[in-house]
Amino acid sequence: MAAEIFDIVILNGRPAAGKSEIIDYLKQVPVDERRRRFHIGEFEEFDDFPILWERFEDDDIWERLGRPRLISETHFEYEGRRLPGYVFKDRMFWHFLIERLCSDYAKRLRDRPDYHARHTAIFEFARGAEHGGFAAAYEHLSPDVLARANAIYIDVTWEESLRKNRRRYNPEKPDSILEHALEDKKLEFLYRDSDWSAFSAGDAEYLQVQGVRIPYAVFENMPEKTDRPDVLGAHLEEVCASLWSRRQRLG
Q1: For residue 50, cis peptide bond before it (omega within 30 degrees of 0)
Q2: Are 116 and 35 in contact (CB under 8 A)?
Q3: What is the pLDDT of residues 87-126, one digit of tens each?
Q4: DSSP β-bridge partners for residue 155
Q5: What is the pLDDT of residue 176?
Q6: Position 147 in a domain
Q7: Which residues contact 172 (CB under 8 A, 6 or more apart)?
Q8: Which domain holds residue 155?
Q9: pLDDT class for 183, splitting at 50, 70, 90?
Q10: Longest dimension (CA), the chain
């Protein structure tokens, strides 16, 4: 059974590129069909957004108790201006998040050695060049994750990321996976510049990380496909087929 499904799929892309929409779509597909079409079994999400947002909320509470914020600031400096928006005091926290996801995953394997007989772990994160980019993030993946990892990059331009970020914005639910968004200037500050092209430039099929070859494929989301379930599903099936072939060639 394990040979039919990916152990780990890493979903990457700019904010609002379509990562959460793809996961939401997969949740609606019956597991037998999901295994057949996408090589994804029962799945669990390892997403760094809930972790980082909880840290912002923790700092808000800590500040209300009369103490200085521990991890985050409520403003950032950009283009000579002080602008509102949560940012981390130390950029290393972006790498902490990756290692935290790996730690959570390691506990699944510890408690359920047969985890991948039925389960695909889906890691999800965005990274901009400002905080090290994808190249730096992948350097913090654990050996267990790297050995099992397969990556899908959802490709949109910076302008499309900005447009979709604005579209999904719901100020009443800043903690929502599908409705959270960043202020325009914060999005520009953190994510306008992406290193994915440089990170993946060495090989059209495999990323090279810590001496490990990681199969990857690109989900082209321009024009937008993640707002049309039938189109999303058809393209994702093509992407996963390519990714599965690349994984199989590794042996």
Answers
A1: no
A2: no
A3: 999 999 999 999 999 999 999 999 999 999 999 999 999 9
A4: 220
A5: 52
A6: yes
A7: none
A8: 2-47+92-250
A9: confident
A10: 57
